[in-house]
Every structure is written in structure tokens, then in C-alpha cells.
Design brief:
The chain is an alpha/beta fold. 24% of the residues lie in helices and 20% in strands. Among the domains are: 1-182, Leucine-rich repeat, LRR (right-handed beta-alpha superhelix), CATH 3.80.10; 435-584, Ribonuclease Inhibitor (Leucine-rich repeat, LRR (right-handed beta-alpha superhelix)); 624-737, 2-Layer Sandwich (Phosphorylase Kinase, domain 1); 743-971, Transferase(Phosphotransferase) domain 1 (Transferase(Phosphotransferase), domain 1, Orthogonal Bundle), CATH 1.10.510.10. The protein has 21 helices and 53 strands. The protein starts with 5 loop residues before the first helix and ends in a 12-residue tail after the last helix.
Length: 971
């Protein structure tokens, strides 16, 4: 039984109805609502709290509205209250109900057929739940129903004919994003004259668009996308919809007329629709030429999607009549001929997609007149000739994709005037000449620069170092020469660098291995000489390396970043030796002359050796006195350091021994200001030693800043300190080694936690950052929140670490102020890591708590999606929050995202209805992440609000009917 006490409660209030002195309608309605409440198994927002109070009249209950005149219940709106449980059939007893809205909850089970008895019902919304089963045929009795929304559930079966045949008042119908099958049940006997919106996308519907739908002459919006409809495009129907604005038929099996060879009749049927704005026909394999009358479509048209079809022929110049078009997508067809210069007349175009066709001829220079153009994709065609200089006029251009063509000439220096350009891909063409310094200096490039597979020559321009936000640079397979400029180290966000297949010479710059985020480097097939710098081996971020077919020499090891490489990364370098299979072994040369040198040293140097040893011991004693070791208690009690400090006796020598001489095999992390090594002390204490191995400048300030923070804060979700060592040539902080490592490792290497633990980790991080913002004695902005800076202890409790670039705000300052003064400045530094940086930082704003909230939001979205922010930037061309926002606005994609997340985090064997609760928790995390990453800092919640929300979500999971899965510490 779904509601064990429903019958008892119903009988009790039935007797009250018969014998009570109150108004019968109110009593009956109250009993039905209490019966409904008894089927709700979770109410995390306490939405029904007022229902439990004896002193509150039923008309004043939350979500209940009564008719003032007759005092009967006419509306029940509990949308978005995160209620869990089932829908009680007892609601059918509230016969006066006109509006029922239970959307956006966790409701499960079947839709009660008894709801079909609510004959006065005008609005019914059950969308965004986990309801299953069929749509009750009894809904055909709802003759007054004009609004029906059941999208985004798990409904199946066919749409009952009675719903459309008897629902003559229906104006809005949304059954999208379910698993409904069969045909649209409309015929000449079923006429929906009042229908304005029919949304059936993302189902399993088949058949043709019913001819009877032409009787719905008030239709404004028809969305049948992502189904299995077939037959000819409905030209005989659409011309009967004079008010039509949106027609979405993409990703079905529709055909054009005359055996899928003629699109003209369908376009002709749309000509007189004066309100028409969007047409989507993508992914149907439609055949036929792109007809001349495409330009006769209504001038009100704003978006035209014809991609992924079999449309051939040339693009008619007449298409320029669509003067209000902002989005034109003709990619992945069989179009040929030239690009019409008349496209310049469509001066509102913002995005043009013509990729993957067979277009030829030159790119019209007149495209430079499209002042609003932000994206131009003509890749994968047969275009020839030069890149027009007029593109310099495209001030809004953000993405220029011209790869895989036959373009020639040089790269116009005028492209450097496209100051908003984020992606420039001119690869796989026949472009010659030098790389213009003006283009190399485009510091607006945030995603990638690809000039590979051309005939470029000359050296790499030094201006390339100004691209401090670009993630990928590929200039491979050209005729470039000269040395590789070490100034490329200024490309601080660079992750992928491909210089292969050129004629670069000289040595490989040491500085390239010090790029903080570099993940892949390919310098193969050049003329590079000398040894491979140790900086590449020591890099903590490098995963892919290729040094093949150069003239490198010397010894290479298989430690550090080289540990996962094979001989394939070193082929064609005869001077290299090392431990890789297939590489020649290194042989130590015997130094016989040392024997002859040793004899006179032993005979005459003994007094000197003794003097040297005595002097060394004195120096060692002096240096030891200069090194300060600070315990946590001393930090709390001695802020100024004027008092002699008590400290654990951990010497520099002990730290060296514990970490194997700070060897690369002990290296567990590397950041902007130093490296972190794991080690074990003599008493078997496992520690992490953060070493800042350079004195002066920003490194020293960073060390002092971290010490300042660590000595003032204490919280269960912030890393604690064991000791600090300061000396002229060595600064280190010693922490306890977290047995479960970083969150990053669990997300991308050895994930071992479920949704419950995911929520706990998010809650732990929120609590830690909330303490820094609102409760710490010294108000702190972290500035670099990301998975690698979240550590997990033996109980999988999350601890925030690494305050190396934090700002300390005075306790009497407004912590929300963006430009607050700080104890120590990090002026000129990037406030965080690429992908996690708040957008306002890029406009020169100072560090703020709102920036931390943004980084936290990205962290949550990364955990849910399993995608690194930088990967999304590289592959999707947008930020992680923008990518997820697109998924969120398209329900079928959002559902897929939630399902994928559940597969990664859900323990095996959880019952289906419980999986539904987990899915909704994941959805809440997505919504919280999007809320935290709003572009406007003032609209983001505070970390205190976030921590409270995460605490609520954690408590909900703990108290829910979900089985508790204890997360075992991985060892």
C-alpha cells in the first residue's frame, strides 16, 4: 500500500463531514488535504507545516486558496516545494478545485485516475516529478481543462484519445520529455480549436502529423522534435496556422515532397505566417535543393535551422531577404557553389554556420559589413583565395573557424583588430607568409589558436607571449624556424602546445616545463638539440609529451612526469640514453684521473679537511639557530614572534630524510609558489611538506601570508598545521598527510564515494569557506578553490587547503566589498586557476568573497558533471557553467546529465524509486552551482547561505528513506 493510514484518516474526516457543524465543502476539502499529506514521505522545506496546526484555518494553509464568496477550496499550488511521496486519490474529493499545481517536486508512482473527476479543473501541472505509468484516460472528462503540463516525468504508453477528443478547451499541452509512444490521437472528430501550444518533444511518438491539427487555427507553438515522426513535411497543415511563431520538427524522419526531392512546397506554405520567428528542421535527412523561395519566408523569421540534412545546390542570393535573421545554420549538408555576397544585407546576423558542405570560391569581403556577427563557421568546405581584410570590421566576432579549406595568401594583420576574438582556427589550408605580430598579440583569445597544417614560415613572434588566457596553441606542420622563445612562459593558462613538424632549432626552453597548467607538449620532428630540461620531468601537470625526431642528447629518467612515457616519446634521438625499453642504456665513464688526484689530497690535504669540517659544523650550528620551527600552539599564543617559541623538533635534515631528499618520487603536488612532498618522520608520522624553494619577492610574501592565515584560523574543514620552518634559503609548512589524498584524485582517478558522500563533501567545503568569510578572526578570501585544494581525511571529511594567494581582510572591513584593502597584496597575479576564476576578475576587480562563491559553484558543477572546466573550454568553446546552463534549459539533455551523474555516484542495488530521490538531489546541486556562478556578483548567494542550503540537503539525505552507505576509506 502506498499510503498505509489514508483509509483511516479518510473515514475519520468522512464522519466529521456527516456530523460536523462546519461548512461541508471546507470539511471535505480539509479531510482530503490531510489524506494527501499522509502520502507525502518527505517535506524538507516544511511546506506543509501550517497544515499540522489546529489553530490555522484550511484556507490559510500554505499553497491553498479559497473562494472568498463561497469559502470553498479552488486552488492547490505546492510547486517547487521538493515534496516526496505519492499523489493521493483523495484530492478528487475537492470537487471545487480549479487549479492543481504539484510541479517541481519528488513525487513518484502513478497519476491517480481519480483526478479525472475534478470536473471544474482548469489548470493541471504535474511536471518535473518522477511520475510513471500511463496518462489516465479519465482525463478526457476534464472538459474545463485549458492548461495541462506533465513534461519531464517517466510517463509511457500512448496519449489517450479521450484527452484530445473530449478536451475541447485545451489551450496549452506539454507532454514533452517522457517516453510516450504511439501517434498523436487526433482525427476529424477530435478538434482542438483553442489549442495554442502543443509541446511533445523528446518522446517516442510515431506516424505523421495528423491532418486534423490544421483545425487548430490558433496554434502558436508546435514542438515535435526528437521523436520518430515520418511522412512528408506538413505543408498542407501549417498554412492554416496564421499565428504560428515557433515550429520545431528537428530530429525525426520527415521527408520533403516528391519523394524527398522538393522543399519548395513546404517553404511556400510558410510564406504568409506574419508572426513566424523560428524554424527547425535539423537532422531529418531532408533531400532536395535549397529552393529560391527560402528568401520568401516571413521577414519576421529570426532563426533558421536546416543542418544535418541532405540538402544540395547553391545558397540562393535571395535568402538575404530574411533581414531579421540572427541565426543561420546550414552546416552538414551537400551545398555547393559560392557563398553569396548578399549575406551582408542580413545585418542582424549573429551566428552563421556553413561548415561541412562543398562550398567553393572566395569568402565574400562583404561579410565584414555584418556588424553583429559573433560566430562565423565555414570550416570543412572547398573555399579558396585569401582571408578578407574586411574581417577587421567585425568588432563582435568571437569565433572564426575557417579550417579544412583551400585558403591561400597570408594571415591579414588586420585580424588583430578583432579584439573580442576567443577562437581562431585557420588550420589545414594553404596559407603562407609569417605569423603577424598583430594576430599573435590577440590577448582576447581564451580558448585556442590553431594555425597548423599550412605553409607558414619564419619564427614564432614574441607577441605570442601576450596570450595569457589561451588554453591551446597549435602551429604544427608548417615551415616555421628559429628558436622556441622562452617568453612563452607568459602564456600562463596554456594547457596544450604543439610545435611539431617544423624546423625549430636550438635548445628547448627550461621555462616551458614550468607552465602551471601545461598538460600536453609536442615538439617532435624539429631540429632541437641539447638535453631535455628537468623542468618537464618535475612538472605535476604534464601528461602527454613527445620529443621524437630531434637531436636531443643526454640522460633521461622515468621519474616524475616521465613515469608514464614510453620509447615512443623519444624516438629518433640517437644521443639520448635512459631506462626506457628500446633506448640505449647510459654508461658511467670511469674517471681514472681522480685516482691520481686523490693521492696528493690524502698526503697533503688532511689538515685542510679537518679545518673544513670544523668550519662546516660551526656554520651548521649558526644556520640551525636561524631556522624557526613553530608549533600550532605557538602560532595562536605568539603572534608577533617576540617570545622564544616552543616547537616540535623537526629539523631540515629530518624533512629531507622524510621526503627522500625532496625527490620527484615523493612529489605529490606543485603550484604557483612551491611544491608539496609526502614523507614519513622517525616516529612514523606521515606528513605533507609544502616547500617554497625560492626566497624574496612574491614567494616570500606568499609564505608569510599563508602563515598569517594558518595561525589565526581553526575549523574542522580547514587544514591544520603541524609546524613551520623558516630559514634564509628554505621555507616550508608541514601538514598532516591526508590518507585519501585530494578530491581531484577521487574525481578523475579513483572515485570511491556515492551521492551521499558527494553532498557531504560539498557541505564540508561550504562550511570551511563560510568560516573564512564570516567567522574567522581574520576575514579571508581563498581565491583558488578547486579540487586539488580539497583534501580528504581518513573519514572522507573534506578539508580546504592552500591559502597561498588568499587576501586577508581587516576584521572591521566589509567582507563583501570587492576592493577592500588587504594585509599583503598580490597585485598582478591571476586570482585563481583557469576555469574557476570569476568573470569580474578579468575586468580588473579585486578579490572578493563573491569570487570564492563563483569558484565554489564551478567546483560543484565539476563534481556533478565529471568534467574539468578547462576540458569544457577546449572542447565545447564555453565555460563549464555556460555548458551546464545549456543542458539545464533543454530538458532531455538535463535528464541525460542527471542520469550520467547518478551512474557515476549511485551505489549498485538502490531501488528505482530511491534513485529518483538521488536524481532530484543531483538536480538541486546543479541549480545551486548555477546560482553561485551567476555573472553578476551581487546576485550570487553568500557562502553562509550556501552552507545552510548544503546542510539542509545533507540532513534531507540523512533523514530520507535512502539506505545509508558508509563510505569506507580507500587504502
Amino acid at each position: 500500500m502506498m499510503c498505509l493510514i489514508r483509509l483511516t484518516v479518510f473515514l475519520f474526516f468522512f464522519l466529521e463531514t456527516v456530523y460536523g457543524k462546519e461548512n461541508g465543502g471546507i470539511v471535505n476539502g480539509k479531510s482530503s488535504l490531510i489524506s494527501f499529506m499522509s502520502c507525502i514521505v518527505s517535506d524538507p522545506q516544511n511546506a506543509l507545516e501550517s497544515w499540522k496546526s489546529r489553530g490555522v484555518h484550511v484556507c490559510d494553509w500554505s499553497g491553498v486558496r479559497c473562494n472568498n464568496a463561497s469559502d470553498v477550496i479552488i486552488e492547490l499550488d505546492l510547486s517547487g516545494r521538493t515534496l516526496g511521496g505519492t499523489i493521493s486519490p483523495a484530492l478528487a474529493n475537492i470537487s471545487s478545485l480549479q487549479i492543481l499545481d504539484l510541479s517541481g517536486n519528488f513525487l513518484v508512482g502513478h497519476i491517480p485516475k481519480e483526478l479525472g473527476y475534478l470536473v471544474h479543473l482548469g489548470e493541471l501541472s504535474l511536471s518535473g516529478n518522477f511520475l510513471e505509468g500511463h496518462i489516465p484516460s479519465e482525463f478526457g472528462s476534464l472538459h474545463n481543462l485549458y492548461y495541462l503540463d506533465m513534461r519531464s516525468n517517466h510517463l509511457e504508453g500512448e496519449i489517450p484519445p479521450s484527452l484530445f477528443c473530449n478536451g475541447t478547451s485545451l489551450s496549452y499541452v506539454d507532454l514533452s520529455n517522457n517516453s510516450l509512444g504511439g501517434q498523436i490521437p487526433l482525427n476529424n472528430e477530435c478538434i482542438l480549436k483553442e489549442l495554442r501550444y502543443l509541446l511533445l518533444w523528446s518522446n517516442k511518438l510515431v506516424g505523421q502529423v495528423p491532418l486534423a491539427l490544421s483545425n487548430s487555427t490558433k496554434l502558436k507553438w508546435l514542438d515535435l522534435g526528437l521523436n520518430m515522426f515520418s511522412g512528408e513535411l506538413p505543408s498542407k497543415i501549417v498554412h492554416n496556422w496564421p499565428q504560428l511563431q515557433f515550429l520545431y520538427l528537428s530530429y525525426n524522419n520527415f521527408a520533403s515532397h516528391d519523394g524527398n526531392t522538393n522543399l519548395e512546397p513546404f517553404f511556400a506554405s510558410l510564406m504568409n505566417l506574419s508572426y513566424f520567428e523560428e524554424l527547425e528542421l535539423a537532422g531529418n535527412n531532408l533531400g532536395g535543393k535549397l529552393p529560391h523561395n527560402v528568401g520568401d519566408l516571413p521577414s519576421s523569421l529570426k532563426e533558421l535551422h536546416l543542418e544535418k540534412n541532405l540538402i544540395y545546390g547553391s545558397i540562393p542570393p535571395h535568402i538575404s531577404n530574411l533581414v531579421n535573421l540572427t541565426f543561420l545554420k546550414l552546416s552538414n549538408n551537400l551545398l555547393n557553389g559560392s557563398v553569396p555576397s548578399s549575406l551582408s544585407h542580413m545585418n542582424r546576423l549573429e551566428r552563421i554556420y556553413l561548415s561541412n558542405n562543398s562550398l567553393s570560391g572566395e569568402i565574400p569581403s562583404t561579410l565584414g559589413d555584418n556588424q553583429h556577427l559573433g560566430l562565423l563557421d565555414m570550416s570543412g568546405n572547398k573555399l579558396s583565395g585569401p582571408i578578407p581584410d574586411s574581417f577587421a570590421n567585425l568588432s563582435q566576432l568571437r569565433r572564426l573557424l575557417l579550417y579544412d579549406n583551400q585558403l591561400s595568401g597570408t594571415i591579414p594583420p588586420s585580424l588583430g583588430k578583432c579584439v573580442n576574438l576567443e577562437i581562431l582556427d585557420l588550420s589545414h589550408n594553404k596559407i603562407t607568409g609569417l605569423i603577424p605580430g598583430e594576430v599573435a598579440a590577440l590577448n582576447s583569445l581564451k580558448l585556442y589558436l590553431n594555425l597548423s597544417n599550412n605553409n607558414l614560415h619564419g619564427s614564432l613572434p614574441l607577441e605570442l607571449s601576450k596570450m595569457d588566457m589561451v588554453l591551446s596553441i597549435d602551429v604544427s606542420k608548417n615551415n616555421l624556424s628559429g628558436s622556441i622563445p622562452p617568453q612563452l612562459e607568459s602564456c600562463t593558462a596554456l594547457e596544450y602546445l604543439n610545435l611539431s613538424g617544423n624546423s625549430f632549432e636550438g635548445s628547448l626552453p627550461y621555462s616551458l616545463g614550468q607552465l602551471l597548467y601545461i598538460r600536453a607538449l609536442d615538439v617532435s620532428s624539429n631540429h632541437l638539440i641539447g638535453e631535455i630540461p628537468d623542468s618537464f620531468k618535475l612538472s605535476s601537470s604534464l601528461k602527454e609529451l613527445n620529443f621524437s625526431f630531434n637531436k636531443f642528447s643526454g640522460n633521461v629518467s622515468n621519474n616524475g612526469a616521465f613515469s608514464n612515457l614510453t620509447i615512443d616519446s623519444f624516438l629518433g634521438n640517437s644521443g639520448l640514453c635512459g631506462p626506457f625499453e628500446g633506448m640505449q642504456r647510459c654508461h658511467k665513464k670511469r674517471s681514472y684521473h681522480l685516482v691520481f688526484l686523490l693521492i696528493p689530497v690524502l698526503l697533503f690535504g688532511t689538515p685542510l679537511i679537518c679545518m673544513f669540517l670544523r668550519y662546516s659544523m660551526a656554520i651548521k650550528s649558526k644556520v640551525t639557530k636561524q631556522c624557526s620551527f613553530v608549533s600550532r600552539g605557538d602560532l595562536e599564543n605568539n603572534e608577533e614572534g617576540t617570545k622564544e617559541l616552543k616547537y616540535p623538533r623537526i629539523s631540515y635534515r629530518q624533512l629531507r630524510e622524510a621526503t627522500g631528499g625532496f625527490s620527484s618520487s615523493s612529489l605529490i603536488g606543485s603550484g604557483r609558489f612551491g611544491q608539496v612532498y609526502k614523507g614519513m618522520l622517525h616516529d612514523n608520522t606521515r606528513v605533507a611538506v609544502k616547500v617554497l624553494d625560492t626566497t624574496g619577492g612574491e614567494m616570500s610574501r606568499s609564505f608569510r601570508r599563508e602563515c598569517q592565515i594558518l595561525k589565526k584560523i581553526r575549523h574542522r574543514n580547514l587544514i591544520r598545521i603541524i609546524t613551520i620552518c623558516c630559514r634564509p634559503e628554505f621555507n616550508a609548512i608541514v601538514f598532516p598527510l591526508m590518507p585519501n589524498g585530494s578530491l581531484e584524485r577521487h574525481l578523475y582517478q579513483s572515485q570511491r564515494f556515492d551521492v551521499v558522500q558527494l553532498v557531504r563533501i560539498c557541505s564540508d567545503v561550504a562550511e570551511g569557506i563560510s568560516y573564512l568569510h564570516h567567522y574567522s578572526p581574520v576575514k579571508v578570501v581563498h581565491c583558488d578553490l578547486k579540487p586539488s585544494n580539497i583534501l580528504l581525511d581518513e573519514d572522507m571529511t573534506a578539508l580546504v587547503t592552500d591559502f597561498g594567494i588568499s587576501r586577508l581582510l581587516h576584521s572591521d572591513e566589509n567582507i563583501s566589498t570587492s576592493n577592500s584593502a588587504s594585509f599583503s597584496s598580490t597585485h598582478g597575479l591571476l586570482c585563481g586557476s583557469v576555469g574557476y576564476i570569476a568573470p569580474e576578475y578579468g575586468m580588473g576587480k579585486h578579490a572578493s568573497t563573491e569570487g570564492d562563491v563563483y569558484s565554489y559553484g564551478v567546483l560543484v558543477l565539476e563534481m556533478v558533471s565529471g568534467r574539468r572546466p578547462t576540458d569544457v573550454l577546449s572542447h565545447e568553446g564555453s565555460s563549464l557553467c555556460e555548458w551546464i546552463k545549456r543542458q539545464y534549459t533543454q530538458q532531455h539533455q538535463l535528464q541525460n546529465l542527471v542520469e550520467q551523474t547518478l551512474q557515476r555516484f549511485s551505489p549498485c542495488g538502490i531501488p528505482y524509486h530511491r534513485n529518483k530521490i538521488l536524481k532530484d538531489v543531483i538536480l538541486e546541486l546543479i541549480e545551486l552551482g548555477l546560482l553561485c556562478t551567476q555573472h553578476n556578483p551581487s546576485t550570487r548567494p553568500t557562502m553562509l547561505d550556501v552552507a545552510q542550503e548544503m546542510g539542509r540537503l545533507k540532513d534531507y539525505l540523512t533523514k530520507s528513506t535512502l539506505p545509508r552507505h558508509s563510505s569506507q576509506s580507500p587504502h
